Amino acid sequence: IYIVLKLYENNSLKEVIGKQGRLSKDQARVYLLQTLSGLFNCHKNKVLYKDLKPGNILLDKKMEATISDFSLATILNSNNKQVKGRCGTGYYIAPEVTSNNSYSFSIDI
């Protein structure tokens, strides 16, 4: 997989939350919808992201969110509809991953 991203001069969502504290409901809603749009595009193209967290959501000049760091991503296909194995980061890992069962796109949401 080759992914080309534009230059992001602002911080990640993690850094924004660290600087300003809790997001307002409106800010959270906007970033959530933008992130879900990115996940929808990943899943539409059979890409299982596997590491969604504020540190992997970059904000551009307009403060629009984009998912970054596809290092753990997996492409699922007709021969490979589910995967197994531990992946992700600490508190952001889905329960399916920690139980050592097979999982699919639901772990990204």
List the SSEs and their pairings:
Layout: H1 13-20, H2 25-44, E1 47-48, E2 57-59, E3 65-67, E4 74-75, H3 95-98
Antiparallel strand pairs: 1-4, 2-3
What features would you describe in this structure?
With 109 residues, this protein is an alpha+beta fold. It has a single domain, classed as Transferase(Phosphotransferase) domain 1 (Transferase(Phosphotransferase), domain 1). The strands form 2 sheets. A two-stranded antiparallel sheet has the order 1-4. A two-stranded antiparallel ribbon has the order 2-3. Strand 2 and strand 3 form a beta hairpin. The radius of gyration is 15 Å and the shape is globular. The protein starts with 12 loop residues before the first helix and ends in an 11-residue tail after the last helix. GO terms for molecular function: ATP binding; protein serine/threonine kinase activity.
Radius of gyration, CA atoms, in whole angstroms = 15 Å
Helix content: 25-40%
The named CATH superfamily:
Transferase(Phosphotransferase) domain 1
Low-confidence stretches: none
The N- to C-terminal Cα distance equals: 22 Å
Enumerate the strands of the largest sheet in spatial order, edge to edge or round the barrel.
Answer: 1-4
Whole-number count of domains: 1
Class by helix and strand content?
A: alpha+beta
The helix/strand order is: HHEEEEH
Strand elements, count: 4
What characterizes the major β-sheet?
Answer: 2 strands, antiparallel
**The CATH top-level class label:** Mainly Alpha
- Known CATH architecture: Orthogonal Bundle
Report the β-strand fraction as a percent range: 5-15%
Average pLDDT, to the nearest integer?
88
Number of helices: 3
Return the CATH topology.
Answer: Transferase(Phosphotransferase), domain 1
General shape: globular
